[in-house]
Amino acid sequence: MWILTRYAFWVPARTFRRAAAQQIPAARRVVSSWQKEKVERMKYVVVTGGVVSGLGKGVTASSIGVVLKACGLRVTSIKIDPYLNTDAGTMSPFEHGEVFVLDDGGEVDLDLGNYERFLDVTLTKDNNITTGKIYQSVLEKERKGDYLGKTVQVVPHITDAIKDWIESVSLVPVDGEEGPADVCVIELGGTVGDIESMPFIEALRQLYFSVGQDNFCLIHVSLIPVLGVVGEQSPLPLQKTKPTQHSVRELRALGLIPHFLACRSAQPLLENAKQKLSQFCHVPVANILNIHDVPNIWHIPLLLQNQSAHDAILKQLDLLSVARHVDLQEWTRRAETSDNITKSVSIAMVGKYVGLTDSYLSVVKALMHACIACSLKPSIDWIAASDLEDDSAKLNPEAHAAAWKTLRGATCVLVPGGFGDRGVKGMMLAARYARENSVPYLGICLGMQISVIEFARSVLHLEKANSEEFDPQTPERVVIFMPEGSKTHMGSTMRLGSRRTLFQTPDCITAKLYNNSEYVDERHRHRYEVNPEIVGSLEEAGLKFVGRDESGKRMEILELPDHPFYIGVQFHPEFKSRPGRPSAPFLGLVLAATGQLEAYVKRQQNGSVYAIHQQ
User: Fold this and answer.
1) Element (H, E) at 503
2) Whole-prediction pTM value?
3) What average pLDDT does the chain have?
4) Of 44, 320, 408, 564, whose CA is between 20 and 30 Å from 210?
5) Is 572 a catalytic site residue?
């Protein structure tokens, strides 16, 4: 059975049957083959990359979604990662950046965090496709005999699985409204020419052929390097287009022809470079977009708008008649506000993975959202936790002294999440410093557990207090392994996704920061928790657990009442922070560091939400 689409393309009904079987909302309506009623067809915008990795394809894809959304269209996103891992959960932050956690517990690539922040949507783990997921699904079908004895091959079985996954997931609404989105933005990770991405390139080529040219738009992100003067003198920088030419040639050889080039460069692209790219890449000059370096990434959607990228993309997708005039006033205000801020707040970030800032990307974004809400710029001082430890004073005294000088010079301290025992002693020293010197402190996940261990050692005088993660044989178990966890399998075995935390008292600072709510739903990613058997002793000594899970046995939020701001949260509030809607714990940290917290809480009690004093 086939279905006739609104744009006169026939679609196999198996796509709709499969979506229904997976409880995915099918396209507007499924009809019988002889009725041939028209249903709306999904539009696909595919973003690929060439020359080098790390060009900002994720930000580019997110920004394209923003400008399309500003035209009144509903947008969803898919990220394709060609690696064999099933998900990003077991990957090192040093190698791949942070692991972003979704509401449904999906551990995904950090680019999905960009999508959620830019588009203000809630994605699912199925919005992140990996080679591991695809091969796993195909092999499971083969073992069940679904292929009826056929030889299972990359083409057509793997490529069909990729296409089916894309078509099914693109129909799932992610913006809280009913029915599928209008446009699905797909980012293909890696670089064109990588061996591992070949099945996805072929699947996208087939998808292009099946949906038709009015439903498919390919945008190729490439680098335009600038070389210094070579040989003859030249008053202008030499913007080299040859790498992009070769990248496009490789893409065309694989059967995909780009409709747009998104050229990354340090400076605005010169007109002669655009003309050369157009001539050798067979892309109209009007469709060559320049994404040059800007003060902050909120300018990227504005760059696209200024080049009329939205009109060209809408024309390619035959959506000009249904789209409205682009409205990016909010983004313009946001970008200009960020550019015009002059005052800053110093934040000491004491962590394990400070060598790669992408390891804490969502934390950095959450701090930026909170600071901008307070008319401040975040000045993050990165401190390697191990540099604070006593051993560092002997092995590397200069780094030790510099780390402590930085910590003492900061107006607040943040200890983010992490795994393993490296740097734990340094984190405890940072937590103790903040506690004893009334410096605002926020501990996230591991940072909360660190503050509990430090309090037990310093205040309860439990010298051997520790976590089972760092010392499985510790006699004073302050933090324990969760009973539902697995000690043999690492992937997807933690407490993951959105969980409810109930506030135990409305008088705590955290509840007030969350607009006096009775509960809060935040995302988790941990396999260790505070030992409920020691909670009574900790609270008697002054450390209050003001937030617990629905059972009342799992500690979620701690506060130190006689401290200006000393808060630890077991969840990861950074994952739900949005531009214009900063995460409550991060906002509280910045407010406390700048002396605005008390006034803000009073305004909250008077019903004035986000009434922050603009200094």
Assistant:
1) strand 495-503
2) 0.88
3) 88
4) 320
5) yes
